[in-house]
Amino acid sequence: MIRILIADDQPLVRAGLRTVLATDPELEIVAEAQDGRSALEAVERWRPDVALLDIRMPGMDGLAAAESIRARHPAVRVMIITTFDEDRYIARAVQAGVHGFLLKSGDPYELIGGVKAVMNGGTVLAPPVAHRIVGLLHGRELQDRLAARTAVQVLTPRERDVLALLGAGLSNAEIGQRLHLAEGTVKIHVSALLGKLGLANRVQAAVYAYRAGLTG
Asked: Which GO terms describe its molecular function (predicted)?
C-alpha cells in the first residue's frame, strides 16, 4: 500500500484528487493539508510515502514545503501538482529535488501512474514541464559557454594552451612535455589562469576549457 498526503488550499481540488486516487486499491490517502505548514506537520505525524503538493498555498507555499520535506524526510517522495508551470516555479522545484511535477490540466489518471513511478525510484514530469526544463538547461549551457569563451580572452596564448591541455586531463608534467616547458613553468601558468578566471582547482579549469571550446 502506498500512503499519500494531499496538500492543496482548495477543498474541491483535494476532493477531486482523492476521488481519482481512490480508484486504485494500492493507494491510501492518510492525510490532507490546506497549506505548506500543515503539510509539513502531516508528514511529521503520518510519514506518508508520497506527498502531493500544490504550489500556491497560503503561508508556506508548496515549494517551501517541498524543500523542508526533502531536507527533513528524504525517504518521502515529493510530487508537485499544480496549474502553474512558469519557469521560476519549475526551476525552484528542480532545485528542491522533487520527484514529480504534474499539471492539473493533464489527464487526472496520469497521477496514479506518476505516484507509482516515483515510488519505484522514477521521476515524473508532465510533457510541458519536461520541455521547459530542457529549454532552461539548454539556455543555461549556452550562456555558460558564451561566458567562458569571453572570459578566456584575458589569458595569454600560452595560458590558453595550458588550459586546453588541462581540459584534456593532462598532468603538469605531461603538459610540460607537450608544450616543451619545465614543469615549474606549467605550475606558474596554471596558477595564473586559475586566478584570472576565478577558478578554485584543476577540475573547474577542465570544465571551463570544455565550455570555452578549447578541448575540441
From this structure: DNA binding
